[in-house]
Each structure stands twice: as structure tokens, then as C-alpha cells.
Amino acid sequence: MTQDDGELDSLVRKRIRALRVAQGWSLEELATRARVSQSTLSRIENGRRRLALDQLVTLARALDTSLDQLVETASDDVIISPMIDGAHGLMRWPVRSDPGLSVVRQRMTEPPPDNPARMRAHPGHEWLVVLSGTAVLLLGHRRFRVETNQAAEFPTMLPHAIGADGGPCEILGIFDRDARRGHQRAAGERESEGSST
User: Fold this and answer.
1) What is residue 165's three-state secondary structure?
2) To the nearest whole percent, how much of the chain has pLDDT over 90?
3) 3-71 maps to CATH 1.10.260.40
4) So where are the chain's domains?
5) Which residues, 6 or more positions from 90, have their beta carbon under 8 angstroms from its beta carbon?
6) Per residue in 114-141, pLDDT tens?
7) Global pTM?
8) More confident residue, 192 or 129
């Protein structure tokens, strides 16, 4: 996440400061709890430092909140129903979508596809945080287990697939504009495959 991501970036920075103040903590106290320097935290709150996903996870934990709560935004849609893709063991809740960035909470029950031909590659960049369970991230020929509270960041031009490992898992996926377009195209292709069978 960078300062160019606009509204969401500004909201997250304000929320970090508001949560810190609500706890009655100084910059120094939150910095100590989050194991970052006081100057780094000050620059994050004031918009002079890039927001990095690993720092957001650490700050959310130190503020006794979750990453999805830290990045959620108010919208006209108070109740959000999940989009269910039963054929692929996916359930998605869109948390945030604007022209530059999308945040989606996903529940997965199926492992990633065994067939490398089913892996997708497209322009963009993606970040994910595992909220519960264990996810498997396939990147090219590499396989990564991503445990609860761990994050991953990768360019989506690498062939990739994500799935659950040993039971359901929930992830928070953050996509830049190009990655979101790639996932929308892939979802459209899956729908057309499903309707033809």
C-alpha cells in the first residue's frame, strides 16, 4: 500500500492514530508494543512513510485489532452478503473496492489446483494475510505454507494459485488495480466453464 492509494491509505493512517489515542498511548508506547521505532510510527501516522503490509499486521496486533478491521471502510452497504463459488470451495466478502485498490475477505475449503495449467498469471501485485487456518500459496514451482497472522506479497505475473491446507482458511486479499482486473477475468472464465458443463 502506498500514499497513492488515496482515501483508504489516509483512513488507515487516521485509524492507527485514533486507536493509539483512544488507548491513551504515546507514540513511544505504541512503537514499543509494535516493535517499530518511534520515528517510523510518526511518519506512518503523518503520511511520510509508505504503509507496508507487514507493519500493518504488527500495528493491528499491537492495537488489539485485526488487519481487516484496520482497513475496513464505511459504505452504504451495511450488510454484505458473500459471493459463493461452491465448485472451487470459495466464499468472498468484498471489504473495499476503489479505482486503485481492492480488499476482499475470502474463505477457502479446497487446496490449490494440482495442475500447473490451472495457475493464473496476469499484471499486478497482490498481498494476503491469513486470518485463520493455513493457506497454501503456489508461486511458479514454489509452494509456501502461510499460517494464521502471516502475510505474503507477490507480483501476479508469477503463475500463482491459493488454497486451503488441511481444513478451511480465511484470508484477507489486497489487490492493486491490475491484479483485480486479472481476478475478475479469471472469475468470468470460471463462470463460463461452469455453465458449459
Assistant:
1) coil
2) 23
3) yes
4) 3-71, 83-196
5) 84, 106, 107, 108, 109, 110
6) 887 788 888 888 988 899 999 999 998 8
7) 0.54
8) 129
Q: Residue written as cell 494459485?
A: 161
Cα 160 to Cα 6, 13, 21, 126, 168, distances in angstroms: 28, 31, 40, 11, 19
Query: Would you say the C-alpha torsion 51, 52, 53, 59 has a positive or negative sign?
Result: negative
Task: Give the 3-state secondary structure of 15-80.
Answer: HHHHHHHHCCCCHHHHHHHHCCCHHHHHHHHHCCCCCCHHHHHHHHHHCCCCHHHHHCCCCCCCCC
The 10s digit of each residue's pLDDT in 150-164 is 889 898 888 999 999
Banded model confidence at residue 187, pLDDT cuts 50, 70, 90: low
With b for 16 or more beta-carbon neighbours within 10 A and e for fewer, the 150-187 pattern comes to ebbebbbeebbbbbbbeeebbbbbbbbbbbbebbeeee
E strand or H helix at 179 = helix 177-196
Q: Which CATH number fits domain 83-196: 1.10.10.10, 3.50.50.60, 2.60.120.10, 3.20.20.30?
A: 2.60.120.10
Task: Assess whether pLDDT exceeds 90 at residue 61.
Answer: no
Residue 195's CB is within 10 A of a number of other CB atoms, namely 7
Give strand pairing partners of 60.
none
